[in-house]
Amino acid sequence: MKAIQIEAHGGPELLKLVDLAVPEPKPGEIRVRHRAVGVNFLDVYHRTGLYKSPVPMGLGTEGAGVVDAVGAGVTHVAVGDRVAYVARTPGSYAEARTLDAAQAVKLPDSIDFERAAAMMLKGLTVQYLLERTQPHGGLQPGDPIVWHAAAGGVGLIACQWAKALGLAVIATAGSPAKCELAMRHGAAHAIDYTKEDVVARVRELTGGKGVKVVYDSVGKDTWERSLECLAPLGLMVSFGNASGPVPPVSLLALTPKSLYVTRPTLGVHTATRELLEDGARSLFGMVTSGKVKIDVSRSFPLAQAADAHRALESRATTGSMILVP
User: Cβ(35)–Cβ(64) under 8 Å?
Assistant: First the structure.
């Protein structure tokens, strides 16, 4: 089979198309023949070595396809089933892969492979953030929240999901076109951070109060501004490092407003079959109801994975990207 591998950590040019043996599933595993594979910033972290893994290694943790082999002891999926997954280990940039069967869920017939591959990691991330990672006292309809990078794949899903929950998203993005896109997907307000003072605008929109929660996947570049946007007892949710990891934080910086800080990960929120099934059920319900539409903005052949990474890191992309084997 064809697969993408790297032999050292570094830039997109290190992604190489190679021939590998088709793996056989071990007990408790399944093999999935991919119809589409998701591309995420997590893959960039693995490629650069921000998240350390031994090399040579494959990339990608998200995919959708058809089960074509089942290991001993697997009962909840069978050969021929349409499935989607987020795996705990990289290796999805390939025509096929094996993975722990517990990480895969059956795909409703109404959701095609392309959307499934584009939404599992991003959609399950939004699900655990909006439904499980809430500030002191929870969120109520009408509450404003700040969401950074709102025109990206996660952000566009979040704008729609939050609107469905009755929340008023204050989106931030890096151009007028991206701000307009976030608004079209359900944001109540959008701030172009290249032209506006984010903190001042959030204060203006909230009558000087700030927001209960900021959801931040940017990291280093937005950390200070995110804290300043929060109301007393507010929650800072740092769930990504697109601009680099957040530097060491002084807890004393949180004391004036008694702020909360958390650094959640999808792996913890899908660590058990029950958590995964709960998240997938909620995600599939949002998508099949039409409340959340998955925007597959770009599709690349598997062999052009390096080009997909360049596009992702340029910050010129919106929505979700996929690879097609």
Answer: yes
For the chain, the straight-line distance linking the first and the last C-alpha, in angstroms and rounded, comes to 10
Q: Where in the chain is the domain with CATH 3.90.180.10?
A: 2-121+275-324
Length of the chain: 325
Residues of the chain with CATH 3.40.50.720: 134-263
Q: Which CATH number applies to 134-263? A: 3.40.50.720
Please count the helices (runs of H) and the strands (runs of E) in the chain: 9, 16
Per-residue confidence band for 295, with pLDDT thresholds at 50, 70 and 90: confident
CATH of domain 2-121+275-324: 3.90.180.10
The Cα 76–Cα 62 span in angstroms is: 19
pLDDT digit string (tens) for 99-124? 999 999 999 999 999 999 999 999 99
Q: Is 102 exposed, middle or buried (0-12, 13-18, 19+ CB in 10 A)?
A: buried
Q: Which helix (H) or strand (E) holds 320?
A: strand 320-324
Instruction: Output the six-digit token pair for 179.
Output: 């701000």
Residue 209 has phi, psi (to 5 degrees) of -80, -30
Residues 105 and 127 sit within 8 Å (Cβ to Cβ): no
List, in sequence order, every residue forming a beta bridge with 94; answer none if it has no partner. 3
Q: Which residue has the tokens 């109520």?
A: 140
pTM listed for this prediction: 0.93
Q: Distance (Å, rounded) from C-alpha 161 to C-alpha 257?
A: 28
Maximal CA-CA distance, the chain:
61
Structure tokens at 230: 């929060």
